[in-house]
Amino acid sequence: MSLLPSSLSKIPTCYATVSIGTPFTPLPSKLHLIAAAGFQGIELGFPDLLSFASHNLGRDVGPQEFDILCKAGEEVKTLCEETGLKVVMLQPFANFEGWEPQSGEREDAFGRAKGWIRIMEAVGTDMLQVGSTDAEIPVDRHSAIADLKELADLLSFHGFRLAYENWCWSTHAPDWKDVWEIVKGVDRSNVGLCLDTFQTAGGEWADPTTKSGLLEGEGSKEAMEKKFHASLQDLARIIPSEKIYILQISDAYKPKQPLDPEPDESGMKPRGRWSSSLRPVPFDGGYLPVVDVAKAVLQTGFRGWFSMEVFDGGPDGRDHEWRDMEGYAMKAMRSHERLLQEAANA
Question: Using CA atoms, how far apart are residues 68 and 119, in angstroms rounded to an integer?
Fold first, then answer.
């Protein structure tokens, strides 16, 4: 199905605060650069809120000091209003679902959820990103659905939404079809999807542990490509546009050497390591079929937030100096514009 360029002209643009500078870069500077590049909103990264609160107090603020974080969140809301930015989403809420009933981990997960809801109120956002858990626990789908229902109901009381994202290294829901089945099972009007070009192509098309950088278990590259594009056709056909809340945008560098397929000393799987520092903006050295993923999402009729969420340490993943943040933000906007143009022409 072709896409009319005129239908894409009003897609709103967003930029994740964790995707420019470092956690030590002052948040007001990040917001100014994001707004100056022409973006209309932000995904507020929790690490940036922690850093902002810590800088204001002159000490390290802990992730569950919610009274302090809410006060800092109110200041962030004011900063965003002054720069003309909407706080589109708070992220990333991780390792929430699937813990054993009555366990300390489950109690902690719901305690964090209630604290993050308070922060959402303070910063003025109505959407919480929840990534499919990568905790090394056996996750029963029924329990995951039950946990997310409970979270959805907590959010609904405040008029808030839950955007559920597949992380391609998740222990139970690495693909878009997995999270879509869970969202259908949750069956709440305030629960939808956070789709991501990296998470989809990085899980179903690419593999950072192979020499080719591609999935190699399908017999041939042609067979893999056929299966991947069939998946994108399913996405475009199956998912109602109103159940997509946001599309995150990034590409990936092909690792110079295949990553070790085993988890590292911290337990992080190879796709998680790949995600953390080898994700540039599209058309800047990456190799994923980002345009194909974006087009499939647009073919659902979705015309909501396109959000740059990149983790760019350069082709070797080690360059974190951020010498030109202003130039990078402008490059991200040019990438967004080209992505829409190429999706319409593909």
Answer: 10
Q: 189: buried, middle or exposed (CB in 10 Å: 19+, 13-18, 0-12)?
A: exposed
**How many CB atoms within 10 Å of residue 266?**
7
* pLDDT, tens digit (0-9, with 9 covering 90-100), for 205-217: 999 999 999 999 8
Q: What angle do helix axes 325-345 and 290-298 make, rounded to 10 degrees?
A: 60
Note the pLDDT tens digit of each residue in 162-197.
999 999 999 999 999 999 999 999 999 999 999 999
Global pTM reads: 0.96
